From TrEMBL:
Keywords: Amino-acid transport, ATP-binding, Cell membrane, Membrane, Nucleotide-binding, Transport. Residues 7-246 form the ABC transporter domain. This is Amino acid/amide ABC transporter ATP-binding protein 2, HAAT family. The lineage of its organism: Bacteria, Pseudomonadati, Pseudomonadota, Betaproteobacteria, Burkholderiales. GO terms for biological process: L-amino acid transport. SMART domains: AAA (SM00382). GO terms for molecular function: ATP binding; ATP hydrolysis activity; branched-chain amino acid transmembrane transporter activity. Belongs to the ABC transporter superfamily. It comes from Paenacidovorax caeni.
Amino acid sequence: DSKNIVLNVNGIEVIYNHVILVLKGVSLSVPEGSIVAILGGNGAGKTTTLRAISNLLKAERGEVTKGSIDLRGERIDNLSPSDLVKRGVVQVMEGRHCFAHLTIEENLMTGSYTRKSKGEIAANLEKVYNYFPRLKTRRTSQAAYTSGGEQQMCAIGRAIMANPSLVLLDEPSMGLAPQIVEEVFNIVQDLNKKEKVTFVLAEQNTNMALKYSDYGYIMESGRIVMDGTASDLASNEDVKEFYLGVG
Ligand code: ATP
């Protein structure tokens, strides 16, 4: 039922610097309340896909040259990143991007710039601390002195401060020990179930991503080459051979 689709990407092409065609017709649809993974190796186009959705390509000299993007049936491809945040679409960038000189709590507060009510902001902060107890204990620490896992949690927590309905997570596992990756993904799953946040997750860590998502798209050289439910992909022989490192 198309009414339950929160995000639809319809055949988008993306060109960088006016000449480099990076996305060659990417389509995907994201059901409300799901966790959808975009998988594939280095340079496959995962980050570019997320940046196209959140309209963050301009800073990279990129543009969508074909296709369209709809949020609950309405075109969003001409909305600014901050208008998208107001509509509930928030991206957590690769590499965490916490402000190193700010404390964890100050970082979280930067995520609430679209909210006006002090009561709402305080309630959101409590909510974030409830999901990420580690951030509460580290709230007065400068982000630079926290661990990679805490910085990733801080980046996701900051997104949650904006009351999003759709969070685009770019490579949350990057540089983290497997146990920390599990911890982060468990919290993502919790937010998905209890707060009804829909997630689109770009990941090179196919194994971990499929464990926590409902549906997956596999990208290669700017195209979707396969898609299916997470359990179908995880048991698919080609996926096992090429992406899960087992034959
Ligand atoms: P990674 O995991 O390394 O981020 P990815 O799947 O997210 O990989 P993208 O970052 O989307 O891939 O990159 C897709 C292709 O676009 C790559 O070939 C990359 O070199 C190219 N690319 C990315 N950003 C730019 C840019 N600003 N200018 C030109 N080419 C770019």
